[in-house]
């Protein structure tokens, strides 16, 4: 089902990659709720194989379906979901059910479960070799059967056409639903048959009424199907029963904001770009894979390391109505395998947050002023259309969201300076990129919109931020 069940007009989720449940709960109460975030995607919550050195990717190697990981145990998870829901922030779980662990000896999980992966024996579920496809490696991505029935990186491939496998997956997801979540990211959906997923989703129970969801609400489903247009599996095979993560989105915007294609081409963004229909797409600038060279996108992907253009691309993502938006929230890394900040015993170290700055190794893009202010912008703009498009024929663009918000972006080495049509009612507005309204004062640029809806807009080429954004929620 394609509706995230956010509270009110909230429109964006954040992936708190590798955060602990207790820290997420506090973040919901102290920041995400008050700032209008719609939801949090949490890292996989099932019991995973412990891999020496504790790389982040061990969490994509299930050893059982017990809820226990370095993020916390089941009672911590339950406490987090309750507190986030109470703060009007929904929780979405990354579900890994295409496969179990690859071979490892010994194979021991975070909760102490053991397995014999080379025999495809996972007694803690239980799964036996009868529940898996035969062993073969995925190498030819033109062959959809191979992509779905062989092993991704040596991870033993579950056969979702088997009733026992379907039942185990449904039991696991229902258990999470009962704890009050609003939906699921389906990891490696491309590697599972659409007809099996359709059946599995159809058997899921409704969202929990006691957690506050309307009666008969179906879980939100968004599926990881990386389709850049050149493989055997197509993203459109998965849009009948859920959203699909649109990986072209961050690739095209990465190219654009790196200056490889002019921003003026974004005029018809969403149509004619090979992107999914807006209502089928979940979008992001980067994710936990492609920010470190896993998955698709390579060097075009923008990350926190390219901070200035990353914020510009994210501002465009959040200002434009296309898709359901997700923000990445990272920890600092150079080695792409390294896991989150942790003690010598593997315990994850919590972010320390002072004045919106995270330390202890965490980046917290979602706490960056330019990003969370645009999360609010998106909520204010609701479903209003793109209007009053303007560009200078190259890398300076501006547009309004109906009469509710206006954004200008300068991606040039020349200053942007001119009278632009904002679409907003006459009045004084506070640019939420350069400042905010504190007390009754705008700490950034004040923009005066005249009776004809025009305003003098200035973004010098060397400004800290190449973006200016105003909306009717912030007048001054
Ligand atoms: C290695 C060899 C294999 C060999 C195997 C033998 O590379 O050739 O067959 O040993 O045992 C890790 C290692 C990988 C290792 C594998 C098994 O990186 O080298 O194989 O474990 O031990 C994440 C990481 C992977 C990681 C995996 C499991 O990205 O590197 O593999 O977790 O720990 C495609 C898919 C897409 C996928 C994307 C990364 O279509 O679905 O690649 N994205 C999702 C997640 C991603 C996760 C998985 C899928 C798997 O977003 O984070 O992979 O659950 O595009
Ligand atoms: Ca598969």
Strand order of the largest sheet: 1-2-6-9-10-11-12-13
Rg, please? Answer: 23 Å
* Form type: globular
Mean pLDDT across all residues, rounded?
Answer: 98
What's the number of helices?
A: 8
Number of strands: 25
How far is the first residue's CA from the last residue's CA?
41 Å
Q: Major β-sheet, in short? A: 8 strands, parallel, barrel
User: What fraction of residues sit in β-strands?
Assistant: 15-25%
List all distinct small molecules, including ions and cofactors, that are bound in this structure. Answer: ligand QV4, calcium ion
Uncertain segments are none
State the share of residues found in helices, binned by percent. 10-25%
Q: What structural category arises from helix and sheet content?
A: alpha/beta
């Amino acid at each position: 089902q394609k509706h995230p069940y956010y509270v009110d007009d909230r429109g964006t989720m954040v992936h708190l990659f590798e955060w602990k449940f207790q820290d997420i709960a506090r973040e919901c109460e102290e920041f995400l709720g008050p700032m209008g975030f719609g939801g949090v995607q949490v890292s996989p919550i099932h019991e995973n194989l412990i891999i020496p050195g504790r790389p982040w990717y061990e969490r994509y190697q299930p050893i059982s379906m017990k809820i226990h990981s370095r993020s916390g145990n089941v009672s911590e998870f339950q406490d987090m979901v309750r507190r986030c829901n109470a703060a009007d922030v929904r929780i979405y779980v990354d579900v890994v059910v295409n496969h179990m662990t690859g071979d490892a000896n010994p194979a021991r999980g975070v909760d102490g479960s053991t397995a014999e992966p080379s025999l495809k024996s996972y007694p803690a579920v239980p799964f036996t070799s009868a529940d898996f496809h035969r062993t073969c490696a995925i190498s030819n991505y033109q062959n959809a059967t191979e992509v779905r029935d062989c092993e991704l990186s040596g991870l033993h491939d579950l056969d979702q056409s088997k009733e026992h496998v379907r039942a185990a997956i449904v039991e696991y997801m229902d258990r999470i639903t009962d704890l009050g979540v609003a939906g699921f990211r389906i990891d490696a959906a491309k590697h599972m048959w659409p007809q099996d997923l359709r059946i599995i989703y159809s058997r899921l129970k409704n969202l929990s009424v006691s957690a506050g969801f309307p009666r008969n609400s179906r879980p939100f489903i968004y599926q990881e199907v990386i389709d850049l247009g050149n493989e055997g599996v197509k993203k459109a095979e998965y849009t009948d029963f859920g959203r699909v993560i649109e990986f072209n989105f961050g690739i095209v915007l990465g190219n654009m904001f790196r200056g490889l294609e002019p921003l003026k081409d974004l005029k018809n963004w969403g149509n004619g770009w090979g992107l999914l229909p807006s209502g089928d797409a979940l979008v992001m600038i980067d994710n936990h894979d492609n920010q470190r060279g896993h998955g698709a996108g390579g060097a075009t992907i923008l990350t926190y390391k390219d901070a200035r253009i990353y914020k510009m691309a994210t501002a465009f993502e959040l200002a434009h109505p296309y898709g359901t938006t997700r923000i990445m929230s990272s920890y600092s890394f150079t080695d792409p395998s390294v896991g989150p900040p942790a003690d010598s015993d593997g315990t994850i170290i919590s972010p320390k947050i002072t004045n919106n700055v995270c330390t202890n190794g965490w980046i917290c893009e979602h706490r960056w002023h330019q990003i969370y202010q645009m999360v609010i912008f998106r909520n204010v703009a609701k479903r209003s259309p793109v209007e009053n498009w303007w560009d200078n024929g190259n890398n300076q663009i501006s547009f309004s969201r109906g009469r509710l918000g206006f954004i200008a972006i300068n991606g040039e080495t020349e200053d942007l300076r001119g009278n632009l049509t904002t679409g907003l009612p006459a009045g004084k507005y506070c640019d939420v990129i350069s400042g905010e309204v504190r007390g009754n004062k705008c700490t950034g640029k004040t923009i005066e919109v005249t009776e004809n809806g025009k305003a003098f807009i200035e973004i010098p080429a060397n400004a800290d931020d190449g973006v200016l954004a105003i909306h009717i929620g912030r007048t001054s």
